[in-house]
Amino acid sequence: MVQTKAFGSNRRLGEKTLAMVLAGGRGSRLKDLTEIRAKPAVYFGGKFRIIDFALSNAMNSGIKRIAVATQYKQHSLIRHLQRGWNFYRAERNESFDIMPASQTMSDDRWYEGTADAVYQNIPIIESYENVEYIVVLAGDHIYKMDYELMLEEHVTSGADVTVGCLEVSKKDAQAFGVMHVDENDVITDFLEKPSDPPTIPGMTDVCLASMGIYVFTKEFLFQQLKRDAADPETDRDFGKNIIPYIVKHGKAQAHRFTKSCVRSAGEEEAYWRDVGTVDAYMEANLDLCSLEPALNLYDKDWPIWTYSELAPSAKFIHDEVGRRGHAVNSLVSAGCIVSGARVDQSLLFTSVNVHSYSTLKRAIVLPGVDIGEVTQLTNVVIDRGVKIPNGLAVGNDAELDAKRFYRTENGVCLITQAMIDAL
């Protein structure tokens, strides 16, 4: 695991930092999974929500002040934050605040962009004591990162902003904000989703893409947000407006994810995933079922914190030929009952029931799902609380599946209760 190194008087930068997590996005490419919840509130990994990764990174990095800006379909997210992240204590100089978009005496509008989500909360942030730095985070990615190391590079470089970045292929870079850097990783240009992205010096097909993570001093950030808010032509967005302006008029430093990625035993790659599509969501969850998963969630030195429902242990019952409750290469959460069924290369969230003579393969099953008898489900994502009827078969007939459910180009079927009711 990456360890935070001693850094003289800057060793405890996290204690002087506010983590501002932007969690207002819908995530429309996840289709019906975000019909009733924001993307950061989508379930992941058996017991977590997507936002838990950014929040856990902040806490494990020593950041004691966290604020979460919410907007779209806020209830599920806010309820999770209240249940799972209510252990911060003011008497320990800690704070955890939820900042929904809200009407004020002088204004009545939603957050108009990522920068506006911070700008509207300047009066609240200014009330915090001993905050010198602000780390702006996206709340919808899966990764483990020590933000303290990024803070140290920001201070050392003397930059006005430090931007977290990934190395991606030139083809994939077209979906990101892309940085052109010099030999010292100073950003010389910042392009939002360019058709011909600039590559890293000395590399022909690798680009530096923004992770949506930014470090500022508090006062400098507020100056930039107020300047941007006064511009009627702006999109009020960090990637489109704030960062390009600083690149042009100040100093912007690129911080490579490989410098601060937290790797546990068995993790070879610098793991980061945007689970923004049903296919990507499926594969990232299935990553966890591998013999040696690319993302290790068993690391006690860098735990992922969340709200844990009270539920009994998972249970597997029946041991007859053709009716044996068992799971292979799978994750099965608390409260699940696998009754005379086979679960293969699948992930079951809390309190899932799988009844006799059924077979699941490559299935992501969200909490509270009840799967009837004699079902065959392959390449499926099943939304929370769905009741699968006896005898349903999915994954054998692509044309029929596409008529009944949302089916991706890779053949993954997303199943909701409304789709089942329409059968």
TrEMBL record:
Which InterPro entries would you find in this protein's record?
Answer: ADP-Glc_PPase (IPR011831), ADP_Glu_pyroP_CS (IPR005836), GlgC_bac (IPR023049), GlmU/GlgC-like_hexapep (IPR056818), NTP_transferase_dom (IPR005835), Nucleotide-diphossugar_trans (IPR029044), Trimer_LpxA-like_sf (IPR011004)
Q: Which residues form the signal peptide?
A: none
Q: Spell out the protein name for this chain.
A: Glucose-1-phosphate adenylyltransferase
Give me the residues that bind alpha-D-glucose 1-phosphate, please: Y111, G177, E192, K193, S210
Tell whether ATP-binding is among the UniProt keywords: yes
Using the record's annotation, list all stretches that form the Glucose-1-phosphate adenylyltransferase/Bifunctional protein GlmU-like C-terminal hexapeptide domain.
312-415
Q: What chemistry does it catalyse, as a reaction equation?
A: alpha-D-glucose 1-phosphate + ATP + H(+) = ADP-alpha-D-glucose + diphosphate
Q: Top EC class per UniProt? A: transferase
Originating species:
Algimonas arctica
Q: Glycoprotein: present as a keyword of the record? A: no
One biological process GO term for this chain? glycogen biosynthetic process
Against PROSITE patterns, the record matches this protein to: ADP_GLC_PYROPHOSPH_1, ADP_GLC_PYROPHOSPH_2, ADP_GLC_PYROPHOSPH_3
Where is the site Could play a key role in the communication between the regulatory and the substrate sites?
Q71, W110
